[in-house]
Amino acid sequence: MDKYPAINVLSIFAGFRSPKVKFGITPLRFQLPDGQSHRIAQIRQSHTERVGQAMHYHFVVRSAEQRYFHIVFDAGKLTWHLVQEFDAELLFNE
Predict the structure, then answer these.
(1) H or E element: which one contains 46?
(2) Cβ-based neighbour number of residue 81 at 10 Å
(3) Which tens digit of pLDDT belongs to each residue from 54-80?
(4) What is the Cα–Cα distance from 45 to 55, expressed in whole angstroms?
(5) Can you give the pTM of this predicted structure?
(6) Considering only CA atoms, which of 9, 56, 17 is closest in space to residue 37?
(7) Which of 16, 22, 48, 62 is the most exposed place for a label (fewest CB within 10 A)?
């Protein structure tokens, strides 16, 4: 994860699931190192992967400004990272 920039994320760590909180970890808003802030309008995709002893929680999100980002939570280091920003055309299930 060292090659991906760390980001600040406001998120929910759910103790139980509810209709409004569908994921165990739910990112709501994030800030990039350059100060840009983005409210997450939709979680398009999510998956987990084991990396060594830690779990990584990946999210493909759409911001309120219609921009798409791949962000990941590293549960081993308790940090969030930006993997990439990409165009909507790269979403195959749109």
Answers:
(1) strand 37-51
(2) 19
(3) 999 999 999 999 999 999 999 999 999
(4) 17
(5) 0.88
(6) 9
(7) 16
